[in-house]
Amino acid sequence: MVRFMKHKTYNIITLGCQMNKSDSERIAGYLENLGYKLNNDRYSSDLVVVNTCGVRQSAEDRIYGIIPRIKKKNPKAKIVLTGCLSNREDVKKRLKEKVDIWLPTVQIPNLKYQITNKFQIPNNKSQSCGYLKIKSKYSSMISAFVPIGNGCNNFCSYCVVPMARGGEVYRPAKDIVQEVENLVKIGYKEINLIAQNVNSYKSQITNNKFQTNSKLQITNSKQINFSGLLQMINSISGNFWIRFSTSHPKDMSDELIKIITNCKKVCRHIHLPAQSGDNEILKKMNRNYTAGHYKKLIKKIRRAMPDTSITTDAIVGFPGETREQFNNTAELFKEMKFDMAYVSKYSPRPGTAAENLDDNVSREEKKKREENLMRILRKTAWENNKQYIGEIVEVLIEGEKNNFYFGKIKTGKSVRIMNYELGIRNLVGKFVKVKIIKSRDFGLEGEIA
User: Fold this and answer.
1) Among 135, 165, 209, 402, which lies 20 to 30 A Cα-Cα from 279?
2) Domains, the chain, ranges and CATH?
3) Residues contacting 236, CB < 8 A, separation 6+
4) pLDDT above 90 for 196
């Protein structure tokens, strides 16, 4: 690969989800392979990459402040806009004088040509999995995002992802396993498998027998599904945890629940977006399941793994949502007793089916509904967390601040460790036994056991 002059520097601004963070790590690895060096100051960098999120209006609005400010303070910088908004014609029109390169995520491998203005790369969605072969510059030395695929086939009526990223394309299992093996070998303690819908994962097997350094063999099948992938990664030697997100309720199978139960390295934390507790709204959202199906699924997971934490997503104020329909979502929150939820106020997204619906719930009402769900969530989360008091749990220490260690337990709950003053040092990146002595709504406190 042609390398650029060593003095060239880059800065990456990441907005949005775990997938965007992982994409930014791959962009960083790509640019450093070209000879660019990281510069933490966006106002003095030669190249600034803005990795955008178009899922919510609030995330989109941020770029209209960030990009003009960079261009004003650093006019010589070449600005690259990638992510969800890179194909939006209205965004291009609004920022046409500010952005130098419009780069859909799947075209990241062609960035070198656009930087040098050699030629314009056509929009070829067949490249969807190619950029995932780029080696990441991981932002953490403890926990790593490992994408297993890109894109989505579900076309939820409110979501831009299928338009922004294209249809589902998945990495070969051998590539994923090899990346995880390498990460574990150099000391990573937490592997986060990510995709828009991990449950839909599939990898074709070209040989009759598939074998990796994990010594797990899968035969008599034409493809590996997500359950098989978890088994393979779970069998890799080493002391590490496996997390995954995001799952879709319609694809959470009995087989997968059984595999998660039997795989000791897979964390007892399942993020399962509900979005609504009302069947009519779920149908308008094109979610392809009912509230009843969702409730049965959660109960099935908890029967198999009573210690599992369940987190979710919900949208309030979807077009046409009545107060009675919202109350069904509130009842879902009360009954399911979630450990955490990401509640968002509906905002129309250009190009989605829901954009054509009448956004008839006022901002004030959306805010009230959001606050209502959060009140329920704080109560159920606190009740769930109280059960940990007196328990000794394993914590992966992620850092230290103000004379406290902090980290997470296997169920994904945050823990602040109180007795740092005892002089215990060098625990970051290690698994430590901690006794929980106090609970909060969204966190725990403990002391080293």
Assistant:
1) 165
2) 9-127 (3.40.50.12160), 140-267 (3.30.750.210), 270-386 (3.30.750.200), 392-448 (2.40.50.140)
3) 177, 180, 181, 184, 213, 214
4) yes
